[in-house]
Automatic annotation (TrEMBL):
<feature type="transmembrane region" description="Helical">
    <location>
        <begin position="101"/>
        <end position="118"/>
    </location>
</feature>
<feature type="transmembrane region" description="Helical">
    <location>
        <begin position="7"/>
        <end position="23"/>
    </location>
</feature>
<keyword id="KW-1133">Transmembrane helix</keyword>
<feature type="transmembrane region" description="Helical">
    <location>
        <begin position="303"/>
        <end position="323"/>
    </location>
</feature>
<protein>
    <submittedName>
        <fullName>DUF4173 domain-containing protein</fullName>
    </submittedName>
</protein>
<dbReference type="InterPro" id="IPR025291">
    <property type="entry name" value="DUF4153"/>
</dbReference>
<keyword id="KW-0812">Transmembrane</keyword>
<feature type="transmembrane region" description="Helical">
    <location>
        <begin position="335"/>
        <end position="356"/>
    </location>
</feature>
<feature type="transmembrane region" description="Helical">
    <location>
        <begin position="262"/>
        <end position="291"/>
    </location>
</feature>
<feature type="transmembrane region" description="Helical">
    <location>
        <begin position="404"/>
        <end position="426"/>
    </location>
</feature>
<feature type="transmembrane region" description="Helical">
    <location>
        <begin position="372"/>
        <end position="392"/>
    </location>
</feature>
<dbReference type="Pfam" id="PF13687">
    <property type="entry name" value="DUF4153"/>
</dbReference>
<keyword id="KW-0472">Membrane</keyword>
<feature type="transmembrane region" description="Helical">
    <location>
        <begin position="138"/>
        <end position="159"/>
    </location>
</feature>
<feature type="transmembrane region" description="Helical">
    <location>
        <begin position="192"/>
        <end position="212"/>
    </location>
</feature>
<feature type="transmembrane region" description="Helical">
    <location>
        <begin position="29"/>
        <end position="46"/>
    </location>
</feature>
Amino acid sequence: MKNKSNFLVLSTFFGGLLFNYLFWTERLALNLLIYSLYILTITYFNKDITKSYKFKIYATAHLLAAILVVINNSDLTIVTYYISLILFVGFSHYPQIRTVFTAVIATALQFITLPFNFIQSLATVSIGKFNLKPILKFAKYVFIPIIIVTFFTVIYMVANEVFAHYVDTFVLNISNFLGNIFSFFFKDITLVRFLHFCLGAIVTGGLVFTFFNHNLEKAESKCTEKLDRIRKDPNRHTIWREMIQIFSPNLLTKKLALKTEYITGIISFVALNLLLLSVNLIDITTLWLGYKPSGNFSADLHQGTNALIFSIIMAMAVILYFFRGNLNFYSKSKTLKVLAFAWMIQNFILIISVFIRDGYYIEYQGLTHKRIGVLVFAILCIIGLTTVYIKVAKQKTLFYLFKINGHIWFALLLVFSTINWDVLIAKYNINHTSSSGIDLDYLFSLSDKTLPILDKNRSNLYATSIPDLKSPKAVLLTQNDKFQRRLDRRIGYFAERYQKTTWLSWNYRDWQTHQYLIKNRLQP
């Protein structure tokens, strides 16, 4: 026990030092990979961690996410990195967990309980005959009061400006006093740098210290993937039962209640199928076959796409509602399932319409992150509908849907992180210039990874007025000299920034851009 506590406490301390060294005034890149290797190593040598199949899978996934940060270095890869780290911690410290959502909650609990776990570990740390237990015994009496006082101080500061002013002044004076003392003893280290080390120690501790409370795992273990028929106790009184007794006592008869829900489902799905059939027939005749944009088609496509995606989500919610319980086992439920499957097929057709609308949008207006997001969301809807079909056909539970979809979403997140989206967007928009021209402002909003692409295509980039589809000839394309100057300034800013970065901020895409600039002598 003492050896384990010594190992984790020392790991937290050195993790804080490493965090401070890697991330101080640095960009997130190679340093994230190094820090991840440290966390993976500490977790691997922690004897309390079971090296299960999940441990290996999510350790590999997190390592891949860290490598993708170094390769692509985009916002998406950084988000994927953090999500994969959270899932790795959750599944490695709590191996009985089965869903990514529970793993996120488990990791959050581990960070929340870090102060208590850390103090408990410190109490068992010993150096020879010396131990910290007597000191920590006193500290635990003041720790919770400090948290409570701090919490209410913040509330009172929000409520009273005068009180807030006095508190700010007091905190500033204390900060200056501590800063002076700290600089006196440690001339080469500032108080802010020390606090950055403390932040690193807290983050590292939250990642390596396990919250040994298995209630979350026990609660999830009660969730099953296969639906069971629920036998209700007629003598059991609940608030919901008493309300039904008041407004509709006949529904308390189980068979009658199930039959009522069945008839309601039949009517609902027949009406919804007819309604969606009319929408799909309109889309097939007007959108699938010979669509011609007119007027403000951009707003029409955008609004229509959002509405369709929302309707697909609501469709899945309606199906889940009717097939949530004993209606799955009703002897006459075959007809209801056929109607539900028909509605799912029609929703698949609706998703095809979403793809076609977004395709027209991209064809006439160019590729953007949001339009790619619509395609990704449509793919997720297909996956969602497929798993809902399995749920209904195989009588699965809602827990099954959360479990399978969570793992699929995370896998897709890793796959999408392998793509350099900014470069893909820039290349597509430049190579597929339409009569409406290119949105230069949007191209400039993309990251520095696109600078080589923009520089190679200087002569192909034009400024354009807002397109008028009623009169396409009115669109004027003119050479944009202002764009050339803006591009030169961006190249200069990038070169200047790159020269100031250290090896800790190294990433492949910035290096690739820098090599292009050196080769073409575009640096100022």
